[in-house]
Design a protein that fits this description.
With about 160 residues, the chain is an alpha+beta fold. Helix content is about 40%, strand content about 25%. The chain has 5 helices and 5 strands. Strands 1, 2, 3, 4 and 5 form a 5-stranded antiparallel sheet that branches. Strand 1 and strand 2 form a beta hairpin. The longest helix has 24 residues.
């Protein structure tokens, strides 16, 4: 009887972790074939649907495309989550729509103006910058976010 309970408990734990690993597999990872505007789009769609795959999956998706220098500044994932959920960037979570406009680009850097309509139907504008990573390793030649400005509120949509 005790062996049966242990087996059942172990099975439940294995199934739980197996399912969680499949959910995490849904996150896109940086590849050198992903263009700069696509990086911004991937991050915005993740934030728009933050809890779709699991709690804060959109924030994790966004951080996966952050430049290593950016990650040094924002710190580990829990700090990044607190930053996104704070007053400066929480309007990005579960926003209703977004528009990405390229401002300038080169072989190494691209800058975009991003306008979002938040869940309270208020527009906000950001400058979003991505750069091509040049250090040897798995991220070489991938476009990654190096900076996102503070939001500029543009007013209500109503």
């Amino acid at each position: 009887m005790m062996l049966k309970k242990l087996h059942l408990t172990f099975s439940v734990i294995v199934i739980f972790f197996f399912n969680v690993s499949f959910l995490k597999a849904d996150l896109l990872i940086p590849k050198n074939s992903i263009l700069p505007a696509e990086v911004v789009k991937i991050q915005l769609v993740g934030l728009m649907n933050n809890d779709r795959n699991y709690q804060d999956s959109g924030i994790e998706q966004t951080r996966s495309f952050a430049h290593p220098d950016n990650k040094k500044i924002t710190g580990p994932l829990p700090n990044f989550k607190m930053m996104i959920k704070g007053n400066s960037y929480n309007m990005l979570l579960n926003h209703l729509s977004h528009k990405i406009t390229e401002l300038r680009s080169s072989d190494k850097r691209a800058q975009f103006e991003v306008t979002i309509l938040d869940k309270d139907k208020i527009y906000h504008k950001f400058n979003w910058q991505v750069e091509k990573y040049t250090v040897d390793g798995p991220l070489k030649d991938c476009w990654l976010t190096t900076a996102v400005s503070n939001p500029i509120p543009l007013g209500s949509s109503i």
